[in-house]
Amino acid sequence: MSLAAVFRKDFEDAVRSKSLLVSVLLFGLFAALLAALQFFPTLYIDDGSTAPATTLALLNSMRQPAVFFVPLFGLMVAYDTIVGERESGSIRLLLGLPNSRREVVLGKFLGRTSVVAVAVLAGYAVAGGIALATYESFDTAVFTLFTLLTLVYGAVYVAIATGFSAGMRSRLGAFVGAGGLYFLFIIGWDIGLLLLQLAIYGQDIPEAGLPDWFSFIGMLNPSTAFMHAARTVIPAYREITFYPEASAAYAQGWVGFPILAVWIVLPLAFGYVRFRRFDV
């Protein structure tokens, strides 16, 4: 067996377990709802103006759900991919075919990333199809770029979950580890930055603004890195997101791409190193 064989087996297992079908259906319904939000009646009184149904409006609808739910889905489909086989004993068969432990970790990561990719692509295709057929204007190139970035972002959390699945001795340990990082990135990171700001500057932000290194710490969160990467390749995305401008090269938007890459490599390396030391 090889890396390709491990990947194929893991993907086929997802198909047989119906998890891929359920994921595609859920993402399709969810994305269709986001695309249709532009046509819901206004539930508040404003100045009478209405926002046009455009690509940017759709991205605005999908921005926060992408940040919150794509990572959650990536963690749920991957946290038990290796440790589950260790607990059931089937990992011995997988390693005896033979496959190296590195091939198992990478193959599982690629297999679960493909599950996430198929679900996201199917869901975004539904949203894009609705937008293309009904919106006043729709830029397929921009939406495609956003979709590809979402796939990379989802792969980050699949890598995190796979790393914990390879590096922990139980499903519970993998779930707690991966879930803990999810809550750190989604909720705890901003709280930590606020506490750091208060500890250094108090409640008065310097007139020149926060230093570039402070912005860089914020960018180390993969969710923030995803936003910066999107702002880099989709200039219009800046209209629906706000971050202070930085002058240092290490705090520019393009740095979001290497940060995302690091968050894919490091968890897999962590999981592989620990998995290599385990007796199965």
Please describe what this structure looks like.
Helix 7 (140-167) runs antiparallel to helix 10. The chain has eleven helices and no strands. The longest helix has 34 residues, at 101-134. The protein starts with a helix and ends with a helix. The chain has 280 residues and is mainly alpha-helical. Helices cover 72% and strands 0% of the residues.
Task: Give a quick summary of the entry.
With 280 residues, this protein is mostly helical. The chain is 72% helix and 0% strand.
- Please provide the ordered H/E string of secondary-structure elements: HHHHHHHHHHH
Mass-distribution shape: globular
Approximately what portion of the residues adopt beta-strand conformation? under 5%
Q: Separation of termini?
A: 18 Å
Radius of gyration: 21 Å
Q: Please state the average pLDDT score.
A: 85
Total helices: the number is 11
Count the E strands. 0
